[in-house]
């Protein structure tokens, strides 16, 4: 039976760096962000659901989703963000779980890259949860640098997610990303060796 490692973190904690390391070893990665784009492509049930709730204004003239417009609506209003997440959750879950099951048939280890793993209740769909961790203050400063934000804007974005400390407390595995890339590489390699995937 193959093993599914769910990987999550917070904004700017370096989750993509860790996921890329697993990709280097050719383990299949189910990327929730890609799935989230797939379930709202033109003419999908997911997009129709969003339009029926948020109106035609959130579409480009070609019928595709105007992410920027939708983003402005949901970032300004936590209730609307919650509504959107609830609308898309069943489509996302079905697609992610199907992709995990498919990948399990071909690989001893499957990586499920799910930013909202805890928030969306994917704990039961994975065998272990790894959290890519940095303390919140470092998260804020990295985000300010990466996206050219003020401290207030960065803190707002960080606060819109479940706190990184809370995620850390629920993790089976912690990849600490406070140092350089070689430090995180080492942790991933050690975990793979300990689990006998390398």
From TrEMBL:
Give TM segment ranges.
none
User: What coarse category fits the chief subcellular location reported for this protein?
Assistant: cytoplasm
Q: Which residues are recorded as binding ATP? A: 12-17
Q: Where in the cell is it found?
A: Cytoplasm
Query: Which domain of life does this protein belong to?
Result: Bacteria
- Which Pfam families does the entry mention? CoaE
The record's keywords, sorted A to Z, are: ATP-binding, Coenzyme A biosynthesis, Cytoplasm, Kinase, Nucleotide-binding, Transferase
Q: Does the keyword rRNA-binding apply?
A: no
Q: Name one GO molecular function term.
A: kinase activity
Annotated EC: 2.7.1.24
Spell out the reaction equation it catalyses.
3'-dephospho-CoA + ATP = ADP + CoA + H(+)
Pathway(s) this gene product operates in, as recorded in its UniProt entry? Cofactor biosynthesis; coenzyme A biosynthesis; CoA from (R)-pantothenate: step 5/5
Asked whether the keyword Cytoplasm is assigned, the reply is yes
Q: Which NCBIfam families match?
A: dephospho-CoA kinase
* HAMAP family for this protein: Dephospho_CoA_kinase
Q: Which PANTHER family match?
A: BIFUNCTIONAL COENZYME A SYNTHASE-RELATED, DEPHOSPHO-COA KINASE-RELATED
Tell me its family.
Belongs to the CoaE family.
Role summary: Catalyzes the phosphorylation of the 3'-hydroxyl group of dephosphocoenzyme A to form coenzyme A.
Protein's recorded name: Dephospho-CoA kinase
Q: Which organism is the protein's source?
A: Tetragenococcus osmophilus
Q: What is the lineage of its organism?
A: Bacteria, Bacillati, Bacillota, Bacilli, Lactobacillales
